[in-house]
Known about the structure:
Belongs to the antibiotic N-acetyltransferase family. It is an enzyme of class 2 (transferase). It catalyses: a 2-deoxystreptamine antibiotic + acetyl-CoA = an N(3)-acetyl-2-deoxystreptamine antibiotic + CoA + H(+). The protein is an alpha+beta fold and 266 residues long. It has one domain (5-265). It has helices at residues 5-13, 38-49, 81-86, 102-108, 129-133, 142-149, 166-173, 206-209, 228-241, 254-265, and strands at residues 23-27, 53-56, 63-64, 114-115, 123-126, 153-157, 179-185, 188-195, 214-218, 221-227. Helix 2 (38-49) packs across helix 4.
Amino acid sequence: MPLSYRELVQGLQRLGLPAGKPVIAHASLKSFGEVRGGAETLLGALLGVFPHLMMPTHTYQTMLIPEEGPADNAIQYGSGRDQNAMAVFFTPDLPADPLMGILPEVLRKHPQAKRSTHPILSFAGVGVDETLTTQTLAEPLAPIRVLNEEEGWVLLLGVDHTVNTSIHYAEKLAGRRQFVRWALTPGGVVECPGFPGCSLGFEKAAPLLQAVTRETMIGTARVRALPLTEMTGLLVAALQEDPLAFLCDDPTCERCAATRQALARE
């Protein structure tokens, strides 16, 4: 039987999150199995339980690779001529990258949704208008900082920590290396500092975070919720103890390699 709106709401309520707290969500619709009404039903259930909801609506399709730039930036300058030719201009109505999944795009198009204006790392949400306005080119993770200050929650709906954008905020607080990227906008090419590292090793943090994780099953989806402040505190402490923690194991990963090299020099 397909999951109904009521079953989704009841499952989300089982998590027992404090009423009114903002939530940043990451979701895989297919992880739930069949949902009656699809992504719109899942989004409706989320907003019914969490009226202050934010999701990343990143747009990697705007990115360019220049011929030259700052050193030790985990990028091969001059290698993106084909990619650059296919880059698109960022506009507020540019669809979220398909890598984000279907739900962020459905949220972006919600009649009450607002979206931040970062040309690569935008967020969209309902009931988080002021939070979204804090994002700047210099501080792309500012909306997560605000949710952290407001004791918000991270919600993982059928996905793992490799898509948990908030871990990047903990990396920043711990002093982990950030990068520079470039994006195409109607006003020209803009430099985007504060670009985070690789997230493919983030599921390594799951055992550390288990103590503050609430979990339930909704249909076939494993749903986890974590208090952002406690999660961030645990991660920052772990990164300060082991600056190599949560890096991925792919030897070809440029960002993780650059982080290791920077730490080795220090």
